[in-house]
Structures are given as structure tokens and as C-alpha cells.
Structure prediction request, 251 residues.
Amino acid sequence: MSVKCSANHHLRATVEDQVAEGDRVAHRVTLQGTHRGDLFGIPPTGKRMTIGGISISRFAGGKLVEHWGINDDLSLLQQIGIIPAPAQPERKPNGPPAIREAIRDRSLSAERNKALIRRLIDAFWNEGQAAVFGEVFAPDYVDHNPAPGQTPDREGFRQLAAAFRAALPDMHSTVDDLMAEGDQVAWRYTLRATHLGPLLGIPATGKHVTLTGISIDRFAGGQIVERWSQLDTLGLMRQLGVIPTQGQRGE
Prediction:
């Protein structure tokens, strides 16, 4: 799908995957375009950009009535030169093992997979039960949207989780939406916490933050083997005062 907008000439959106249940559809997209107009108050740079996004839409009467979406705006700002891009780790992910693809079963219990996501949120993130991590994530887990500086494997995500828990020790997450189709689960969440330690290179500010995210996980053998996720990192940085809000820009 190709559309025009003032900021990006011929912005192209490609739907990479969809998960549907009931009246809701989650879709993962790749956006590509050239920065030729004002964007977030930033004048045109002429640079090409490619970012990912995940959205959840609710339908009624054959029409879209609600929409939640998060794009990788932090990566966008890095690609057009507004924010420095950190060095990426040399380690690259292996694709999901061929054996997992060969036995891929889309008839797996959607309810069981959703229960595992709830266990991950309640027991691991909210209660700090570290053992749950190894139960839920497969040894050959692949993270398709790793955070800056994070290796895209299970150990990389374990280290990221530890950094978040140290920086946001009072964190509490709630699942706002949870849907499943076949071997995939899409879920939307809200995390609330106090910034009491270094996070993504930002020293502790003592500020209270509210962070939203959307993930799509694929399961095999009762564990998560792949994840695509978008976290409102840009919103987090604005709340911490690292990046001004649009209304503050230029002050």
C-alpha cells in the first residue's frame, strides 16, 4: 500500500503479518518513505527511512471504531539524524530453527498461549519471579525488534529485562488487550513505574513514567520462539525530559 503525506513523499506501508480474534485485528507493518516535509517539527532532511509499527484495531458494523498503534519513532529520529544511533552489537540472530518451521502448528491452543503471556506479566514482570523467564522463552528465541545495543536472542532480552527492573524497581504492568490466532498472540500493555536507575543511557530522574507497548509473539513447544514488539520509547524519553514534547520544541 502506497500513500502520500506531507512529511514523506509516497510513504509505503507493507503489512507483514496479522493476528485476528473476535472484533479485533493486530497487524504488523513496515513503513518506508523519504523525509520531504515537516515531521514532529523537524524540517525536511531528504533522507530515506524504514521503520516498523504494530497496531490493534477494533471493528463494529464493518467499520473501524478504535485503534491503538505504536511506530518505531525513535529509529525514525535516528535515521534522519536527529538522535545519534548507538553502535549495534555484532551478534546477529539465527532464524527460527528449520525443525520448528517444519512442525509449525497453527492449531495450538490459543487460550494456553494467552495464559502464558499473563503469567509472564504477572509472575515475571510484576512479581520478579526470575525462573519464569526460562519457562516462557525458548533457548533459541529470536527478538526481531531488539532495543539499542541489545543482542536479538534470549540472553540479550534477559539482560534488557534486568536493566529495566533495576531502573524501574516499582514497575507494574497491566494487559490492556490480549488476542490469539493459531500459534501467535498479540497483546497491548501499559507499564507504570518510577525512574530510579540508569535506563537506556539516561541517569535516574526520580520521575514517574507511563509506558505503552504492543507485541506479537509466536509460540512453539509451549514457549515463545519469536517476538515482534514496539515500545513507546520516544514517549518515555519525553516523560524523562530527554526529548522535548512537540509543544516545547523551539522554546
Residues 110-126 form the longest helix (17 residues). Helices lie at 73-79, 98-102, 110-126, 131-136, 154-167, 233-239.
